[in-house]
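User: Reviewer 2 asked us to show a designed sequence for the structure in our supplementary figure. I'm pasting the structure tokens here. Could you produce the per-position amino acids so we can include them in the response letter?
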């Protein structure tokens, strides 16, 4: 297909125009992610520590360059990963599974679950990495992956507390992904009869709910992480036997649990703010993704040289990946049919006055509406 043909096709492609508008809207999510990154970087500076003799003020002032140059950009990247994952799966329809068992089964054994888990895993893993490398709050650091035993041993023992630390982001990301997909928390909700949502009216509306969700989810994480680690601990050590041998550690012994209470407290602190940041990012994404069919005061199809055919292309696009653009097209049709705005009247007049031997505008619009009602 030539460049001219591709451009000509895009003129009538509602999905292409919708994507441009959506990308413009989602840039605001990046702005909020940047603000949230600064807040999270500061929050992790005040993480509980067992070292009560440390000079907190001095350490904070010393860490400002690292905070600005390393921590904030890294956390910003982790939050932006979540935004990109959400963009891949824009879902507005309810699940067709009739039982909770089927919903759980098909949610976990899906490509969507794999991509979402990978995104949340990268996000949580990088945040845990920033904390262990660039803070002195933990009782161990990145190089403390072994313990020198008082008894003579040919090879040092693995530090189980260090392994448990890195297990946490794996479980947090898995648990949160399960919660998101099984209970369809990523489905985009639209209010019937509402043509355009103003983000400023919704951004701070559900903050208490987000805080409550984060507390509840974190309680489950705190309770389940030690239990699941105990269940899979043997398999973790056996799975990484090659790495253990490369680092010349003792591969014959599964070390006992040596995780201290202060480490459990710190991990709870870490997981709560990671989950809260994900809740905020997902909420902000939902707000900007569901603004509606108007870009400013103009319907999306008005950017096309042939608005009617463009709108029809959006109504007819039944691709599951384009659920959001199709819903927006129907929302725009409702807007054109009922609104007295200048832009709506202009497009409505075009529909009324449209004449073509090949296409009957009214019949085409009625057919799409009838199919949707079925």
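Assistant: Here is a per-position design you can include in the supplement:
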């Amino acid at each position: 297909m030539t460049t001219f043909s591709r451009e000509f096709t895009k003129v009538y492609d509602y999905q292409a125009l919708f994507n441009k508008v959506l990308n413009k809207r989602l840039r605001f999510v990046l702005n909020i992610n940047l603000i949230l990154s600064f807040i999270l970087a500061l929050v992790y500076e005040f993480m509980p520590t067992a070292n009560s003799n440390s000079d907190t003020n001095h350490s904070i002032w010393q860490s400002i360059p690292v905070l600005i140059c390393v921590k904030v950009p890294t956390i910003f990247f982790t939050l932006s990963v979540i935004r990109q994952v959400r963009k891949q799966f824009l879902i507005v329809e309810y699940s067709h599974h009739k039982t909770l068992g089927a919903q759980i089964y098909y949610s976990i054994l899906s490509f969507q679950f794999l991509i979402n888990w990978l995104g949340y895993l990268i996000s949580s893993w990088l945040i845990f990495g920033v904390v262990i490398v660039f803070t002195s709050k933990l009782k161990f650091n990145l190089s403390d992956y072994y313990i020198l035993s008082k008894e003579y041993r040919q090879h040092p023992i693995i530090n189980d507390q260090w392994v448990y630390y890195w297990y946490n982001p794996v479980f947090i990301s898995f648990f949160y992904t399960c919660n998101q997909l099984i209970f369809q928390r990523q489905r985009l909700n639209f209010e019937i009869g509402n043509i355009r949502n103003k983000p400023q009216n919704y951004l701070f509306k559900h903050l208490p709910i987000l805080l409550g969700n984060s507390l509840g989810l974190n309680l489950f994480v705190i309770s389940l992480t030690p239990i699941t680690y105990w269940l899979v601990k043997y398999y973790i050590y056996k799975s990484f036997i090659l790495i253990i041998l490369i680092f010349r550690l003792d591969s014959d012994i599964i070390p006992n649990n040596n995780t201290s209470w202060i480490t459990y407290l710190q991990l709870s602190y870490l997981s709560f703010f990671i989950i809260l940041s994900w809740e905020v990012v997902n909420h902000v994404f939902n707000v900007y993704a569901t603004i509606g069919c108007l870009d400013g005061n103009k319907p999306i199809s008005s950017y096309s040289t042939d608005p009617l055919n463009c709108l029809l292309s959006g109504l007819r696009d039944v691709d599951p990946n384009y659920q959001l653009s199709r819903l927006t097209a129907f929302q725009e049709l409702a807007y054109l049919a009922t609104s007295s705005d200048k832009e709506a009247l202009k497009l409505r007049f075009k529909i009324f006055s449209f004449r073509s031997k090949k296409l009957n505008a009214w019949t085409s619009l009625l057919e799409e509406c009838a199919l949707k009602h079925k």
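For the response letter, you might also mention the following. Confidence is low (pLDDT under 50) at residues 1-10. Strands lie at 146-147, 157-158, 294-295, 298-299.
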